[in-house]
Amino acid sequence: MAEIGKIVLNSGWLAARSTDIELTGEQLTTTHPPSGPSSPWMNAVVPGTVLGTLVENKVVPDPFYGLENKEIVDIADSGREHYTFWFFTKFECKLAVNQHVDLNFRAINYSAEVYLNGHKRDLGRGMFRRHSIDVTDILSPEGQNLLAVIVYPPDHPGRIPPKGGQGGDHEIGKDVAAQYVEGWDWMTPIRDRNTGIWDEVSLSITGPVKIIDPHLVSSFFDGYKRAYLHTTLELENRSGWVAECSLKIQVTTEVENSICLV
Amino acid sequence: EHLHTQHLSIPPGARVQYSFPELFFYKPNLWWPNGMGEQSLYNITIATDVEGFGESDMWDHLFGFRKIESYIDSATGGRLFKVNGQPIFIRGGNWILSDGLLRLSKKRYETDIKFHAAMNFNMMRCWGGGLAERPEFYHYCDVNGLLVWQEFWITGDVDGRGDPISNPNGPLDHDLFLLCARDTIKLLRNHASLALWVGGNEQIPPDDINAALKLDLRLHPSFGNDNGNGRV
Fold it and tell me: A145-169 b/e with 16+ CB inside 10 Å = b?
């Protein structure tokens, strides 16, 4: 059974260009999962970008060596579908009674659809936001789960003017995304505009009550002699009954290697 | 004093906000920027047990007791900083990201940030055209005493300047910008190194975004200046 806590999903990912895959997300995560890194699937870098995956698999050269960036097709010329990729992985997770699990994406650029065991969930737009999906009800009872994510590039990837320039044609600024990706005075244009699952993917397993976004603040009195720690958090009860909880806060400091003072 | 347990009843399906009674510390070890003292960090653990179930969730974070103030100096027009009441001479560097392909490994953050500390820097500015940096970045800034000046994603791409002319009113979806901003704040707000939020790169965001950010990031009234009880 799963232990309470976080499991990071940062290995075993595969990726493929969406135009090379004729299967649907439902099929990929039920009857027709990819068997391994054989064409058109390749080992994927997650977290990372589509371009990072292509570089890792030597499909394109590393853009940060010499003038090799020029060898990589820019999204303005290729179209957005060229850098629209499927990502796929499997994970084990078997819950005990009254346990719950969230699938967390700490950041995706720029939008995505998630399929888990044939069930679809949409993720909203925006490069700098976390997504958390309660997948308790769609986990496989056998424990082996199939996860596929199709990731779309920014809506406005823009075009790089012949002479380059600060932010290219500025189209990327229409989206909520990093703006250096059309090139800047210190940076070549990033050909996929950083499309991808670019930050941590994880599962968080909890019981009926989940802790959400604690906020810690200190205040000081008498010339820093007296200090107070103020802590606010949110709690979500996912059960169908009144949860009687004990909520505990503990502050420790490490005095010496692994010896802590409470 | 530094361990507190509270009983709560949470209705089914409810999401509630809760504040612990404040915890008292006498002369806590303060967190100082690089070159001014130790980067003392306390481990805060919050856990909840549910009757009839057991441990339900747990969260922990390294927390530094520090107070960071900044203001614009009327004589020079420059921004001055104080940490724990002490003025600090800022030796800063501009930071965009550690790799254009977002190969943002912990090891790379650790190495790069340690290198900045070894250069005797005490602040890094995360440029508005790049990333809201990741928790791993902030962790190593906490540990190495690098203050962080974090900008939101407003540059010349969204202010009507440039050739061709950029969109003059920021990103198209202001609500999405604010959703991302609020989520980013929640992700990073507990880091000791986080010193200053800035609307964008060398400019002010569109009026509605700027007003919303200022409102969301305003100091809570309880944390104002000395109100006669010795509060710093």
Answer: bbbbbbbbbbbbbbebeeeebbbbb
Tally C-beta pairs within 8 A across A and B. Answer: 331
Q: What torsion do the CA atoms of B200, B205, B211, B214 make, to the nearest 10 degrees?
A: 10
Pairing mode, strands B147-151 and B194-198: parallel
Q: Are B2 and A251 in contact (CB under 8 A)?
A: yes
pLDDT in tens, B21-67: 999 999 999 999 999 999 999 999 999 999 999 999 999 999 999 99
- Rounded CA-CA distance A237/B13 in Å is 5
Specify the DSSP element, H or E, that contains B187. Answer: helix B174-188
Output b/e per residue, A237-262; b: 16+ Cβ within 10 A.
bbbeeebebebbbbbeeeeeeeeeee
Compute the distance between CA of residue A23 and CA of residue A21 in angstroms, rounded to an integer: 6
Contacts of A5 in chain B (CB under 8 A): 58
Q: Residue A114 and residue A105: Cα distance in Å, rounded?
A: 10
Helices (H) and strands (E) in chain B, counts: 4, 12
Minimum distance, in Å, between the CA of residue B82 and any CA atom of chain A: 14
ipTM greater than 0.90, yes or no? Answer: yes
Residue-wise pLDDT for B113-137, tens only, equals 999 999 999 999 999 999 999 999 9
Amino acid symbol at A121: R
By annotation, the residues of B acting in catalysis are 202
Other beta carbons within 10 Å of A2 = 17
CA distance A158 to A80: 10
Contact A106, B183 (CB under 8 A): no
User: CA angle at residue B12 from B7 to B17, to 5 degrees?
Assistant: 55
**Angle between the N-to-C axes of helices B174-188 and B135-144, in degrees from 0 to 180, rounded to the nearest 10:** 40
Q: Which residues in chain A have their CB less than 8 angstroms from residue B57's CB?
A: 4, 206-207, 209-211
CA distance B136 to chain A (A): 11
Partner B contacted by A1 (CB < 8 A): no
Beta bridge partners of A145: A91
